[in-house]
Amino acid sequence: MTAFGTTDDPDLAAAVAGELALLDPAVRVSRARAAELLDPGFVEVGASGRRWTYQEMLAELPEMTGATADGPRYEPTAFSAALLAPGVVHLTYETLLDGHRARRSSLWRRDPAAPAGTGLRMYYHQATPVPEADVQP
Length: 137
Known about the structure:
It is a single chain. The chain has about 140 residues and is of the alpha+beta class. It has helices at about 10-25, 25-30, 30-35, 55-60, and strands at about 1-5, 40-45, 50-55, 75-85, 90-95, 100-110, 120-130. The chain contains four helices and seven strands, in the order E-H-H-H-E-E-H-E-E-E-E.
């Protein structure tokens, strides 16, 4: 596992860039841009425990918290990235949003059936709330 910023691997860099883009309000309000970053087989288990599919996420992402430039924004920290196989990256990190901390895990992959030149897309994401007693200084 490699801490973000300590490797030149293009897949690790692409996964981190995609993850950061999905936290950006300008991307969150754009269904077209989000669709470029999410794999059609995408599934998320959110911090609430809700399971999201690709279609559900694209439909609701523009209305979710963190989707407005003047509202609360995700503050990501402590990125770690691991290349699991060629074209498969696992990211872990934490976010702070409006006083709530979550630990996050994402799998990014290059779909072997996709046209040549297709980048990595988020295949799976999970967010787990961090209990207040477990918050690290």
